[in-house]
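#struct-help
A.M.: can someone run this one for me? Single chain, 562 residues.
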Amino acid sequence: MNGAVGSKLPLFPATWLGLNVFLFVHAFLSYEKADKYFYTREILGSALAWARASARCLNFNSTLILLPVCRNLLSFLRGTCSFCRHALRKQLDHNLAFHKLVAYMICLHTAIHIIAHLFNFEHYSRSRWATDGSLASILSTLSQQERDEDSWINPIQSPNMTVEYVTFTSITGVTGVIITIALVLMVTSAMEFIRRSYFEVFWYTHHIFIVYFIGLGIHGIGGIVRGQTEESLNESHPHRCAEFFEQWDDHDSHCKHPRFEGLPAESWKWILAPGILYIFERILRFYRSKQKVVITKVVMHPSKVLELQMSKRGFIMEVGQYIFVNCPSISYLEWHPFTLTSAPEEDFFSIHIRAVGDWTENLIRAFEQQHSPIPRIEVDGPFGTVSEDVFQYEVAVLVGAGIGVTPFASILKSIWYKFRHADHNLKTQTIYFFWICRETGAFAWFSDLLASLEHEMEELGKVDFLNYRLFLTGWDTNIAGHAALNFDKATDILTGLKQKTSFGRPMWDNEFSTIANAHPKSMVGVFLCGPQTLAKSLSKCCHQYSSLDPRKVQFYFNKEDF
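D.P.: on it. Structure tokens below:
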């Protein structure tokens, strides 16, 4: 097993599916064998076990769905696990992947639960209409025979009742419909296309989870599915009395009519603890977001990139972390994540915002207005990410695509400060930095930092410490021809840096082969902030170029996820 497996857990989805299958089978068998539900199974058959087993798994996954998005909890665990094994710490970096995986399981078990109950209602209806004198038909008329509301087992208590009537007049039915609608809206609005193009739709719709959890908590109160009471089991056990159901009305019979009770509501027990934890998380985030933020500097860079430098009392950050930003004048409820581009050594914190949607365009427009007051900004965070571990590797490979360079701005700035202050605790020996952009203007705001690092490394005699490559993917023949004519100049014609800009995309096999040969016995951390297609290519290279010998070069892939 090579070094890159710690980055992406290909076996984890299968493991989680296996755990769900185990829980499902265990619950299924328990309901299939339990004497308490003997008479219920006579009416419903195995559909009862399908419905109840899926409900058990649904509760289990609903317990865990909120934990991966408790960002303060994850940041706390990341801090307390600073001395934990590398593989253990890396599990925290997959919080969103785990959140999605649990959501898929909730959808799966919801579908099974709904289908099973459709069969259940069909069985209820048939047994209520049956006139063949079977055990199922006798059980379905118990409430009328006994004139006791507690003795019924079939919710369709008269021939005039319909499935639709029971569904929309019972707590269980109404909450089930509401839960299903809420889940469909959340899942569809969380699709990649909608998240990228219509973030506001995703943001607002995803908060329907409150309706989902409230509905789930009270869903089982109606008690439509019923089982035999303990007292009735002791008095008239089904193994002893089921075959004599025709004699239940006889006064001298040792078997009496069975009595039933609704299953106790269980869902609220599953979601109570994580619900309380999430409420505390939101309270903490709300309190922190209301602390005053002072905007100390506003810079408008080329390619519609806005830089905000801010200060806030008690704000402490690490490299690669991110914050959530809200602008009340644009939207009171929308919070958007942005990677911090400042270094921990600086007396301010900064972010770079590119116009990629309505919210960011409105924000940039608000700051561009010359004679208007500066908009008020609220900040929540910072929160930890995988990039915090960059200095744990001897060799670090940083790959940024477009505005995805922002976490590495923080890292490179911090390195600049560490060298200026002669930090001897710096474990990293070499950094390879790749920046891929579509247009030349995107290089402008970051080139000053790279120029400073170039100068600093030369003065300290550490020219080989930082190896960076800039790639331009959106170019035409005029740009390429102009660069070719000026190739002999000491600095690049596009960026002003000593390193020449390359046209096209990196040849990752060549790059990884070169790094592996240059560092044959090193741990190499590969960090990406960019699209999923690039992540697949880098992850594949990490596996391919990691040595089977654990004492030799190992590549560990890490991707930024918000």
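A.M.: thanks! The two ends are 28 Å apart (CA to CA).
D.P.: also worth noting: Residues 1-10 have pLDDT under 50 and may be disordered.
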